[in-house]
Each structure stands twice: as C-alpha cells, then as structure tokens.
Automatic annotation (TrEMBL):
Pfam families: FAA_hydrolase (PF01557). The keyword Methyltransferase does not apply. InterPro entries: Fumarylacetoacetase-like_C, Fumarylacetoacetase_C_sf. It comes from Aminobacter aganoensis. The keyword Hydrolase applies. Its EC number is 3.7.1.20. This is Fumarylpyruvate hydrolase.
Length: 230
C-alpha cells in the first residue's frame, strides 16, 4: 500500500478560503450547545448563563457548499441548526480571553444537522449530532477581509421561507469567551473549527428541501436534502 499504510489513508478534509487558491485544513470540529437565550427557551431549558455545553463532530462530517446531503438514517425528525463557525490559525491550553481573537483565522456559515428525536431520548449526543454529513460549512472569510464577527444578521431559509433570523450579538457566550473556556478542556490547534451555537427557529427538513444560510459579511451556504442513504 502506498505511503506506508496497510489500508488507504483518508484524505485531509479542507474548506475553501475566500480570495485564496489554498484551502483551510480541518483538524477538529467543536460545537457549543444552547448559546442563544431564545433557542434555550424553545428547547425548554434554563435561561441562566450556565457554562457552555461542548461536544464534537467528526472532521469528515463536513459537507461543502452546494452539496446535496442524505436525509439522515434512523430519524423521523431531521433538524437544521444555523451557526457561525470560527476557524483557528493557532491555539494552546488556557488561552486568555483577552488573547483569544489573536488565534482566529476567519469565519464561515455552518449548519449543525441534528437527529432531534434521538437527541431528546436521553441517549448519547454522538448519534444525535455527530453522524455522516452533519456539518455543512460555507467558504471561510479571513479576518483580514471581514474583521472579527461579533454582530450582524444570522439567517436560514428553507425553500425561500425564513426559519431562523437573529443576530450574532445575541450569543450568550461570545467568541473570545468560547475559545478561552474550550481551551481549558482541550489543547486547541490551527485547523480547529468551532460552531458557536444556533438561534431560535430550529425545525425539521425533508427530501427536496433547499437550505440557504447567511451571516452578514460572510459567504452564504446552500445545501439540499436528498433521500435516506441506501
């Protein structure tokens, strides 16, 4: 087998970067749960500023802009969750909040696709959140082009109808706080992607639906829902 492996090595997952021929190599995907008050309310949660809920998705769950994804297996309640994603150019342990933005390479539009019926069953979040094709991401806009995203409209339409419509400024835990807190649990590195949580309006999608996500200043993300994987 080529390159000294006994089986074929997986390809490096990467995302396009606005204005550059080179791509961004993805190392890990971290996600923040329940980070907008209105979404906490719609999920029946506590509105207090509790510590962030962190979970991960596998790197190869990433889906490129323009793709058609399968309707997830083993669910009858397949949901969209529109999110701002932060991508890192460097990292470390115990990053100070005041230094956190120095580690950010750029931002992109993302979706945290969810098997809602499984998530609500009390079973581990991995099978509800971390399945194949569960992390569509749009092109990355570098900080040098957009600055640091701390406010602006975040919106998702399904077949042209607005489902989620909010503002990044309403994040309970802001981007520097997320990075600082996450780095107390994990050593962060260049290539890490952090989904920052979804606003209210999450809901089901079905085969044939077109989802378009937009965040002010960033490139949009468009995906379509296909049939269940054979």
């Amino acid at each position: 087998m080529a390159n000294g492996y006994v089986v074929e090595a997986p390809q490096q997952v990467s995302l396009p970067v606005v204005g550059k021929a080179e791509r961004f190599p993805v190392r890990r995907i971290y996600c923040v749960g329940r980070n907008y008050v209105a979404h906490v309310r719609e999920m029946g949660g506590n509105e207090d500023r509790d510590p962030p809920i962190f979970f991960q998705k596998p790197t190869d769950a990433i889906v490129q802009d323009g793709a058609t994804i399968h309707y997830a297996t083993m669910t009858k309640d397949f949901h969209h969750e529109m999110e701002l994603a932060v991508v890192l150019k460097s990292g470390g342990y115990n990053i100070a909040e005041s230094d956190a933005l120095d580690h950010v390479y750029g931002y992109c539009v993302s979706l945290d696709m969810t098997r809602r019926d499984i998530q609500g069953s009390g079973r581990p979040w991995e099978i509800a959140k971390s399945f194949d094709q569960s992390c569509p991401c749009g092109p990355i806009t570098p900080v040098e082009k957009v600055g640091h995203v701390s406010s602006g409209n975040i919106k998702l339409t399904v077949n042209g109808e607005a489902r989620q419509d909010s503002d990044i400024s309403l994040l309970i835990w802001k981007v520097p706080e997320i990075i600082a807190n996450l780095s107390t649990y994990f050593e962060l590195h260049a290539g890490d992607v952090i989904l920052t949580g979804t606003p209210h309006g999450v809901g089901p999608v079905g085969p044939g639906d077109e989802l378009v996500g937009t965040i002010a200043g960033l490139e949009p993300l468009t995906i379509r829902i296909g049939t269940v994987a054979a």
